[in-house]
Design goal:
With 244 residues, the chain is of the alpha/beta class. It contains eight helices and nine strands. The chain has helices spanning 3-18, 90-102, 122-130, 142-160, 170-177, 181-186, 210-213, 222-242, and strands spanning 45-49, 54-59, 62-69, 78-80, 85-87, 109-113, 164-168, 192-197, 200-207. Helix 1 runs antiparallel to helix 4 and helix 4 (142-160) crosses helix 5 (170-177). The radius of gyration is 18 Å and the shape is globular. It starts with a helix and ends with a helix. The relative contact order is 0.15.
């Protein structure tokens, strides 16, 4: 199978395959799109996030209403939301928090998400209801959707043949490695781990979710730990892997 054949099939079949409803749509009726991988470097670094964000707008005075899918995983799109220019931050967060500190360029990466559609949180549903629009809360479905998404991820891995896979977040790590959330949290330490798969064994690096790193506080030790402990530990190993 070619990359384009996978992209096409995933775009057309993914939602039905994981059990999402046919009327899974945003406020104006446009569908919640499947975000297939667009940046698809073979033989490099695969980056796997949890699920994509979306484009938001202010409608009738209600802020941060999800209205459309992003164009690609971890994009840095700039768009006008009806009242102001906005930027999707996920692409910038990926580069600033992970790729640059680890010495990896975006051109070296295959970038994807485990769950390939935007998920509505209770707050999003509440905003829709205030606007008189029905919405389905799907964030609580994450574990089920992630489990059903594993075959799609393994197809991508077989196509990408990455030298290294970077998994972002406890939720992704728990699903892919088949461990508890507590065990998955222990994996976020900067150590390279071996991931046995359907087409071989892959070297993997498990790191905290971007949202955790963006919220430094006394009660959140992750930003400092990531900067002082995890990144230094990972850099040497990564360079050895990529130079082989």
């Amino acid at each position: 199978m070619t990359i384009q054949e996978y992209q096409t099939r995933c775009y057309r079949e993914y939602k039905q395959a994981v059990g999402l409803p046919e009327d899974y749509r945003f406020i104006y009726g446009n569908p919640v799109n499947v975000l297939v991988p667009i940046e698809t470097k073979v033989g490099g670094v695969m980056v796997v996030g949890a699920y994509p964000s979306a484009k938001f707008a202010t409608i009738q005075g209600i802020t941060d209403v999800p209205v459309a899918s992003n164009d690609a995983p971890f994009s840095s799109e700039i768009y006008f939301d009806g009242s102001r220019v906005r930027r999707i931050p996920s692409g910038e967060e990926l580069e600033e928090n992970y790729l640059r500190p680890l010495g990896i360029s975006r051109a070296q990466c295959w970038i994807t998400n485990l769950v390939k559609v935007f998920l509505f949180k209770p707050g999003h549903v509440n905003r829709y209801h205030r606007l008189g629009v029905r919405a389905i809360e799907t964030r609580s479905w994450y574990r089920e959707l992630a489990q059903k998404s594993l075959p799609w991820l393994w197809e991508e891995i077989s196509l990408a043949q990455p030298k290294l896979i970077i998994f972002l977040s406890v939720d992704v790590v728990a699903t892919v490695f088949g461990v508890s959330r507590n065990q998955a949290t222990e994996y976020l330490d900067g150590q390279i781990r071996l991931l046995p798969g359907t087409t071989g064994t892959y070297q993997a690096l498990c790191l905290p979710h971007p949202g955790i790193l963006m919220k430094p506080s006394v009660r959140n030790p992750w930003p400092e730990r990531f900067r002082e402990e995890i990144i230094p530990r990972a850099i040497g190993e990564i360079q050895k892997i990529l130079c082989r």
